[in-house]
Amino acid sequence: MKVYGLLIVLMATLLAWLPSNYALTKAQGSHDDNLITAETLLAKLNKGEKVVILDVRSEGQYKSSNNRIKNDIRVEEVKELDDKIKAVSKDLEIVTYCSCPDEATSNYYVGLLKERGFKKVSALKGGYFAWVRIDGPTESKN
Hints:
By secondary structure, the protein is an alpha/beta fold. It has 6 helices and 7 strands, in the order H-E-H-E-H-E-E-H-E-H-E-H-E. The longest helix is centred in the first third of the chain and has 27 residues, at 2-28.
Protein backbone atom coordinates (compact mmCIF):
# COMPACT_ATOMS: atom_id res chain seq x y z
CA MET A 1 0.00 0.00 0.00
CA LYS A 2 2.89 2.40 0.76
CA VAL A 3 4.27 1.76 -2.72
CA TYR A 4 1.01 2.93 -4.31
CA GLY A 5 1.03 6.06 -2.18
CA LEU A 6 4.58 6.82 -3.24
CA LEU A 7 3.68 6.29 -6.90
CA ILE A 8 0.73 8.66 -6.60
CA VAL A 9 2.94 11.35 -5.05
CA LEU A 10 5.55 10.89 -7.79
CA MET A 11 2.94 11.08 -10.55
CA ALA A 12 1.38 14.21 -9.04
CA THR A 13 4.81 15.85 -8.79
CA LEU A 14 5.60 14.99 -12.39
CA LEU A 15 2.26 16.31 -13.64
CA ALA A 16 2.76 19.55 -11.73
CA TRP A 17 6.29 19.98 -13.11
CA LEU A 18 5.58 19.24 -16.78
CA PRO A 19 3.50 22.33 -17.67
CA SER A 20 6.02 24.80 -16.25
CA ASN A 21 8.95 23.00 -17.90
CA TYR A 22 7.08 22.82 -21.21
CA ALA A 23 6.36 26.56 -21.10
CA LEU A 24 10.02 27.37 -20.37
CA THR A 25 11.24 25.10 -23.17
CA LYS A 26 8.70 26.53 -25.62
CA ALA A 27 9.68 30.11 -24.75
CA GLN A 28 13.38 29.39 -25.23
CA GLY A 29 12.96 27.32 -28.39
CA SER A 30 13.88 23.70 -28.78
CA HIS A 31 17.31 22.48 -27.82
CA ASP A 32 18.27 21.87 -31.45
CA ASP A 33 17.14 25.37 -32.50
CA ASN A 34 19.73 26.83 -30.14
CA LEU A 35 22.77 24.91 -31.41
CA ILE A 36 25.65 25.88 -33.69
CA THR A 37 28.31 23.40 -34.76
CA ALA A 38 32.00 24.03 -34.17
CA GLU A 39 32.56 23.93 -37.94
CA THR A 40 29.91 26.60 -38.58
CA LEU A 41 31.30 28.84 -35.84
CA LEU A 42 34.84 28.46 -37.16
CA ALA A 43 33.68 29.32 -40.70
CA LYS A 44 31.97 32.48 -39.42
CA LEU A 45 35.10 33.55 -37.57
CA ASN A 46 37.30 32.79 -40.59
CA LYS A 47 35.02 35.01 -42.72
CA GLY A 48 35.52 37.82 -40.22
CA GLU A 49 31.97 37.78 -38.86
CA LYS A 50 31.66 39.34 -35.43
CA VAL A 51 30.62 36.66 -32.94
CA VAL A 52 30.76 37.11 -29.18
CA ILE A 53 31.79 33.85 -27.50
CA LEU A 54 30.94 33.29 -23.85
CA ASP A 55 32.76 30.64 -21.80
CA VAL A 56 30.17 29.41 -19.30
CA ARG A 57 31.99 26.25 -18.21
CA SER A 58 31.69 25.31 -14.56
CA GLU A 59 34.51 26.38 -12.28
CA GLY A 60 35.79 22.80 -12.09
CA GLN A 61 35.76 22.32 -15.86
CA TYR A 62 37.43 25.68 -16.39
CA LYS A 63 40.17 24.98 -13.85
CA SER A 64 40.89 21.54 -15.33
CA SER A 65 41.66 23.08 -18.72
CA ASN A 66 44.76 25.05 -19.70
CA ASN A 67 43.08 26.86 -22.59
CA ARG A 68 39.93 28.61 -23.71
CA ILE A 69 38.46 29.57 -27.05
CA LYS A 70 40.39 32.52 -28.42
CA ASN A 71 38.93 35.93 -27.53
CA ASP A 72 36.07 34.53 -25.48
CA ILE A 73 34.50 36.23 -22.47
CA ARG A 74 34.54 34.21 -19.26
CA VAL A 75 31.29 34.22 -17.26
CA GLU A 76 31.92 32.45 -13.98
CA GLU A 77 28.47 32.91 -12.43
CA VAL A 78 25.01 33.96 -13.56
CA LYS A 79 25.22 37.10 -11.41
CA GLU A 80 28.15 38.28 -13.59
CA LEU A 81 26.28 37.93 -16.87
CA ASP A 82 24.76 41.41 -17.08
CA ASP A 83 28.07 43.08 -16.29
CA LYS A 84 29.96 40.96 -18.84
CA ILE A 85 27.52 41.68 -21.70
CA LYS A 86 26.60 45.30 -20.97
CA ALA A 87 28.68 46.57 -23.91
CA VAL A 88 27.45 43.87 -26.32
CA SER A 89 24.97 45.03 -28.95
CA LYS A 90 21.70 43.11 -29.04
CA ASP A 91 22.25 42.75 -32.80
CA LEU A 92 25.46 40.73 -32.45
CA GLU A 93 25.56 36.96 -32.57
CA ILE A 94 26.45 35.30 -29.27
CA VAL A 95 27.65 31.72 -28.83
CA THR A 96 27.87 30.13 -25.40
CA TYR A 97 29.96 27.07 -24.65
CA CYS A 98 30.47 24.67 -21.79
CA SER A 99 31.85 21.17 -21.45
CA CYS A 100 28.88 19.35 -20.00
CA PRO A 101 26.67 16.70 -21.62
CA ASP A 102 23.97 17.99 -23.95
CA GLU A 103 25.14 21.61 -23.67
CA ALA A 104 23.08 21.99 -20.49
CA THR A 105 24.86 25.03 -19.07
CA SER A 106 25.24 26.66 -22.50
CA ASN A 107 21.53 26.29 -23.20
CA TYR A 108 20.69 27.72 -19.79
CA TYR A 109 22.68 30.84 -20.67
CA VAL A 110 21.06 30.94 -24.13
CA GLY A 111 17.70 31.23 -22.35
CA LEU A 112 18.99 33.98 -20.05
CA LEU A 113 20.37 35.95 -23.00
CA LYS A 114 17.11 35.63 -24.94
CA GLU A 115 15.25 36.90 -21.87
CA ARG A 116 17.53 39.95 -21.99
CA GLY A 117 16.57 40.69 -25.59
CA PHE A 118 19.40 39.06 -27.53
CA LYS A 119 18.04 37.42 -30.68
CA LYS A 120 21.00 35.64 -32.30
CA VAL A 121 22.10 33.35 -29.49
CA SER A 122 23.19 29.73 -29.70
CA ALA A 123 25.06 27.06 -27.78
CA LEU A 124 28.13 25.39 -29.23
CA LYS A 125 27.13 21.81 -30.04
CA GLY A 126 29.58 19.50 -28.29
CA GLY A 127 30.97 22.44 -26.35
CA TYR A 128 34.65 23.05 -25.75
CA PHE A 129 35.59 19.48 -26.70
CA ALA A 130 34.01 19.83 -30.15
CA TRP A 131 35.99 23.04 -30.66
CA VAL A 132 39.25 21.34 -29.72
CA ARG A 133 38.45 18.33 -31.97
CA ILE A 134 38.28 20.58 -35.06
CA ASP A 135 41.43 22.41 -33.98
CA GLY A 136 39.60 25.70 -33.46
CA PRO A 137 41.79 28.54 -32.21
CA THR A 138 42.41 28.53 -28.48
CA GLU A 139 44.57 30.57 -26.17
CA SER A 140 46.06 30.12 -22.74
CA LYS A 141 43.83 31.17 -19.86
CA ASN A 142 46.70 33.16 -18.35
